[in-house]
Amino acid sequence: LVVIGDGPDLAKLQDSAGNNIEFLGFQSFDSLVDCMQRARAFVYAAVEDFGIVPVEAMACGTPVIAFGKGGVLETVKNGFSGILYQEQTDEDLMGAIIRFETDGVGYSSREIRSHAARFSKVRFQEEFLNMVQKSWNDFDQSGRNQTAIKEN
């Protein structure tokens, strides 16, 4: 297991970790990308509204093992781009890792990257613009804008 990052609990984690865990500390973005591209899986235990890091891991073709709450429910497709576990406990996380070890050989890096592309900035901007344009067209065709213009 490779742990990247630092924080107030780093020393405590290092003291309690076994010798099969490597702590790399803070890493540059390029180093993070390299690590994610070489990883067999990315473990994500946080709960966030969106959570960009799991999407970044999938953009590298890496499956994600994540706690199934928050934004990962929208971004990680269970059994396709990763594995979701239901309880934020050591046991449930270990169960997800064991499932990945057992079933993880079937993941396609190409398909995971393609799935991650659904959340790209360009796609978001295009879909947002299309939604605004459609809303305007619906409003314009309803005639309500002509009423608003006449009243002013």
From TrEMBL:
Alphabetical list of Pfam families matching this protein: Glycos_transf_1
Domain Glycosyl transferase family as annotated: residue spans: 1-111
Stored Gene3D superfamilies: Glycogen Phosphorylase B
A GO MF term: glycosyltransferase activity
Name of protein: Glycosyl transferase family 1 domain-containing protein
Organism: marine sediment metagenome
